Amino acid sequence: MPNMLDTQFYNIVCIADENYAQHAAVLLCSLLENNRENTFRIFLMTYSMKDITKKKLHQMVERSGSQLVIIENDYEDASIASLKSETSTKAWNSIMYLKTLIPQYLPDDVNRFLFLDVDMIVRTNIDPLYNIDMQGNVIAACEDYLYQQVHKDRLDLSDNDLYINSGVMVVDLGQWREMEKQRPMADFLKDNARLLNNDQDVFALYFKNKIMLLPTSQWNATTFFFEQKPRVLDKYLPEVDVVRHHPYIVHFCEPIKPWFKECKHPYRNEYRKYLRMTPWKVYKYPSCKTVYGKPVWKYTLKYWLNRWGILKEPMALINI
Fold first, then answer.
1. From residue 197, how far is each of 23, 107, 119 by CA, in Å?
2. Which of 132, 174, 200, 299 could in theory staple to 291 by disulfide, Cβ–Cβ 3.0 to 4.6 A?
3. Mean pLDDT over all residues of the chain?
4. Quick one: CA torsion of 114, 118, 124, 130, rounded to 10 degrees?
């Protein structure tokens, strides 16, 4: 359980740059609106963000009685910068790897935090999630999608090892810091740079045998649950209906996000509801123009053909 210092706040960590500031605002608005009885200390890690943007975020969070701490850094002294020199075969997305630097930049009094990607909305009170019994593990999260075995094979993980979706994670930072003392994450990243493709690879290997599953996928309702043929492991098929109709956290991990006008996700209007409650409420939804390199009109046409029953494509989004 969190210690006395942690119980004064719910520590939240998220990552966004200037381009994703609006989406971070929507996430935080949904969190604050559905947890009005809780007080949050929110750590936002970023490479660069305009002063006016930071001011808007501060005002939005602080008017609810919570605290926003923006950690802005170029992180050149961290392990991320060296990764590009370790391999010539990959274009590393540096902002994605900020998750691995969290222990270096959070204050010492943080012993537990909830990490949230910013392409999501929170729909419920997070008490049961944040206060989960970690049972000696460092991370509590949901498993990734159906085809995770490809990643596990590539990383030489066994069938019993967990490969998680890192968008929602409860983290025992005290234990993580102890692991850092034994083997710094920076060294681990350098030693395995040619093997790792993303932050989820890092967590699967570095925290092997120190990961537990959250009790329900409702805490990270990825887009894979909302497809006509859900791309989830067979063991999660019995909970598909409850995840679809009662998600606690909706994770918009499809190519067309709800900030594009063509988005057909069944919970897209909830993103837009919370957007209207932020300083970014005056927003003109642009077209995403292409999906996987093809004109977006083809995506829209296929969506309606599936809705009308003319097509029955497994990956087509359902309607709630």
1. 25, 29, 20
2. 299
3. 92
4. 0
Burial class of residue 69 (count of CB atoms within 10 Å of its CB; 0-12, 13-18, 19+):
middle
List the structure tokens of 86: 């370790």
Write b or e for each residue in 122-134: b if 16 or more Cβ atoms lie within 10 A of its Cβ, otherwise e. bbbebeebbebeb
DSSP state of 226: G
pTM of the predicted structure, to 2 decimals: 0.94
Write down the pLDDT at residue 82.
56
- Structure tokens given for 145: 């999608």
Entry field: residues in the chain: 320
How many Å apart are CA 192 and CA 196, to the nearest integer? Answer: 6
- Please write the tens of the pLDDT for every residue from 276-291: 999 999 999 999 999 9
- Nearest-10 crossing angle of helices 21-33, 268-275: 90
Token pair of 160 as six digits = 């019993």
